[in-house]
Every structure is written in structure tokens, then in C-alpha cells.
Amino acid sequence: MRVLNKLPPSIYDIAYLRLNSWIKTKIQILASLALPFWFEMHLLTISEELHLSLEGNTIRGNFKSI
Fold first, then answer.
1. How far apart are CA 24 and CA 16, in angstroms?
2. Which SS3 state, helix, strand or coil, does residue 43 take?
């Protein structure tokens, strides 16, 4: 992100933020389903690690459990 030099966000910064928000929303939807308590708690501990490859125009999501 472009915080230190205070430049306006690039299209890649905006795409990253939107993708990050979308993934968090999908995880919340899964966690809110009527699932057994232990399974639901496991879903709530999931955190995502995103990797953007700007040159190749590819986006990968790597999901890890805390």
C-alpha cells in the first residue's frame, strides 16, 4: 500500500482491498451457517494471505488456519 509516500492508491491497491474484503465476507458467510459449534469456531479462526502478481495479472489466495 502507498501509505509512506502518500500517493493516491493505484488500481492494484484498490483491487487488493476489494478482493481482501470479498474473501472476508465469504468466510463470514460460511461461519454463519448452521454448523456444529466446533466446526463454526474453526471457520472463525481462518485468516487469508493474499499474493498479487502484478506483472502476470494473476491473483492467488493462500488460506491458512491460525
1. 12
2. helix
- The whole-angstrom separation of Cα 65 and Cα 48 is 8
**Joined grid coordinates for residue 52:** 498479487
Q: What is the pTM of this model?
A: 0.32
According to DSSP, residue 9 is labeled: P
The domain ranges of the chain are 11-65
Contacts of 19 (CB under 8 A, 6+ apart): 50, 59, 61
Taking each continuous run of H as one helix and of E as one strand, the counts in the chain are 2, 2
**Which of 15-19, 21-25, 44-48, 52-56 holds the top average pLDDT?**
15-19
